[in-house]
Design a protein that fits this description.
This protein has 141 residues and is an alpha+beta fold. It has 5 helices and 4 strands. Strand 3, helix 4 and strand 4 form a beta-alpha-beta unit.
């Protein structure tokens, strides 16, 4: 524990303590470069939705963040995911599509602008499996 004359610990001292304890940088000053900073975005294909995602800025989905598309049946989740995937491919990103409903077909992706040969499709059995697969893929660097 860090103690000061006033009994208060400074944010800087707490950050240093946590980083030392972890052996790597896990605590950040948000006014400096930190992992919450988003510098690049992928459009959803809808200017309206892009502006909603980032409070009025025409941006889209933040790169480097986990994003879930959820909604009721037949509300356009797959369509939006395909649009984001196509726009991500245009920026040079690889696409891994986890499908829990086994409803996706390659012609749908093709019509949405995706290069189907460059999409890895994973039929998801349950959410726990998807999380394991994502961890495995992220571990491959």
């Amino acid at each position: 524990m860090i103690a000061t004359k006033t009994g208060r610990v400074s944010i800087t001292d707490m950050r240093k303590l946590l980083n030392k304890k972890a052996g790597s940088t896990i605590a950040y000053n948000l006014n400096e470069s930190n992992p919450t900073d988003v510098e690049e975005w992928i459009s959803t294909g809808s200017r309206w939705l892009d502006s909603i995602v980032c409070t009025g800025k025409l941006t889209g989905i933040p790169i480097g963040k986990i994003c879930e598309i959820a909604g009721l049946e037949s509300t356009g989740k797959s369509y939006m995911a395909a649009q984001v995937a196509a726009n991500a491919q245009k920026k040079g990103f690889s696409i891994v599509y986890f499908d829990s409903e086994s409803a996706l077909d390659s012609s749908f992706l093709d019509r949405s602008g995706c290069v189907v040969d460059d999409v890895l499709y994973v039929q998801a059995v349950d959410v726990e499996s998807v999380l394991e697969y994502i961890e495995e893929l992220l571990g491959t660097g």
